[in-house]
Amino acid sequence: MSTTPRMQAVNIGVLLLFCTLCNPALAVLDGLLSNGNFELGPKASELNGTEVLKHNGIPDWEISGFVEYIKSGQTQGDMLLVVPEGAYAVRLGNEASIKQRVSVIKGMYYSLTFSAARTCAQEEKLNVSVAPDSGVLPMQTLYSSNGWDSYAWAYQAEYDYSEIVIHNPGVEEDPACGPLIDSIAIKALYPPKATSKNILKNGGFEEGPYVFPNTTWGVLIPPNIEDDHSPLPAWMVPSLKAVKYIDSEHFSVPQGRRAVELVAGKESVITQIARTTPGKTYHLSFAVGDASNSCEGSMIVEAFAGRDTLKVPYESKGKGGFKRAVLRFVATTTRTQIMFLSTFYTMRSDDFASLCGPVVDDVKLLSVRYPRNKVV
Ligand SMILES: [Ca+2]
Ligand SMILES: [Ca+2]
Q1: Is the residue at 10 inside a domain?
Q2: Ligand nearest 86 Cα, by number?
Q3: Any signal peptide, and if so, which residues (predicted)?
Q4: Which ligand is the nearest neighbour of the Cα of 251?
Q5: C-alpha 78 – ligand 1 centre gap (Å)
Q6: Residue 276's domain spans which residues?
Q7: CA distance 249 to 251
């Protein structure tokens, strides 16, 4: 059957309408960067031992400085080097960096997730940048006992391409020191909105950084995130230590597919500023539980809404589960800070080395109709 130009125009219109409803960036971009797991390596002639000799020696990457191509099972002194994904990873020596350019949508927010491990006792940092944004991620706290942690970092694309650079700003005496890097992924972030059912945005933490399907240790939302480029949209982590983003595929999660674990006691804090009306009464409801990750013991989550607080005790057997709590308060200002932290520090009972803590999820803030003084 032939189509008239008018019918074609209608069809295109339908197609355009359809495509404004879908997220074009999702299918194209979410997931590993090209050779983001470094399983494709340099030719033997481009290696001197483990050192990569050519700046384009690793397919799809551009390197600078002393970059090593590390095979899983390789030893360093008496330490066995393990790789989180596949058989290969890279190590960044002092002032070394890796770079890849990707196509993005200008103005859109993106989150990067990558796995890193320290190989020496020294404090280490990684500088992640997509010009003009950059961030320094501290690696001094080891959150997972296997040595690997995954980190998230977010930015807003200023151009229709992004040059993603991970750089080791360290100046160690031992050139064999320096972080191992593997599995670099990107995910488009969609700024969440408040709804009639929740004044808070992203209260269930469903919008967040890419989580690797094959890693079992969640993703760290690094500390000192106070701007709007949070990899956990709408939430800030203004504390000294990270919070952990966990997925229902590997952890017990109270609601939906994602939640946060407060892994560093009072040093790991999540917060969001809510618009409130002075004099109105509000209910801040939330779930407190454990991630089913052998994090056992008496826990307390402290919730704050402006000057009001609620301490929620939770007895964890480390096998999953949660309870719900409500903090009722009367707003005194037009902006109320909502905040959560964990009173205690907890270690996993299966290794006594990994930091862990209570899980917070399903955070909802709503104004309630009845005035406070009429309730008996
Ligand atoms: Ca790999
Ligand atoms: Ca959730």
Answers
A1: no
A2: 1
A3: 1-27
A4: 2
A5: 22
A6: 243-374
A7: 6
Question: 6 pLDDT exceeds 80?
Answer: no
Q: Which ligand is nearest to the CA of 364?
A: 2
52-61's contacts with Cβ under 8 Å and 24+ in sequence apart are 52/90, 58/90, 58/98, 59/35, 60/33, 60/34, 60/35, 60/100, 61/35, 61/98, 61/99, 61/100
129 and 250, same structural domain? no
Cis peptide before 5 (omega within 30 of 0): no
* Dihedral sign for Cα atoms in the order 5, 6, 7, 11: positive
Instruction: Render pLDDT for 121-151 as a digit per residue (tens, 0 to 9).
Output: 677 889 999 989 999 888 866 666 667 899 9
Could you read off the pLDDT of 178-188 as tens digits, one per residue? 899 999 999 99
What is the whole-number distance in angstroms between the Cα of residue 144 and the centre of ligand 2? Answer: 22
* 273: in domain: yes
CATH (domain of 101) = 2.60.120.260
Q: Tell me, what amino acid is at 196? A: S
Distance (angstroms) between ligand 1 centre and the Cα of 36 equals: 8
Residue 38 belongs to a domain: yes
User: For residues 140, 75, 113 and 86, what is the CA-based torsion angle, rounded to 10 degrees?
Assistant: -160
What ligand is nearest to the CA atom of residue 359? 2
Structure tokens at 170: 């360290």
To 5 degrees, how large is the angle CA 51–CA 53–CA 59? 95
CB atoms within 10 A of CB 33: 19
Whole-number average pLDDT of the chain: 88
What's the CA gap between 4 and 166, in Å, rounded? 53
Asked whether the predicted pLDDT for residue 82 surpasses 60, the reply is yes
Closest ligand by atom to 41 CA: 1
Q: What is the DSSP letter of 195?
A: B
Could you list which residues have their CB under 5 Å from ion ligand 2? 204-205, 255-256, 258-259, 361
Look up residue 56 and give its two tokens.
């384009």
Do 183 and 247 share a domain, yes or no?
no
Neighbours of 11 (CB within 10 A): 11
Nearest ligand by distance to the CA of 256: 2
| Residue ranges near ligand 1 (ion) with Cβ within 5 Å | 37-38, 85-86, 88, 182
Task: Look at residue 118 and tell me if it is in a domain.
Answer: yes
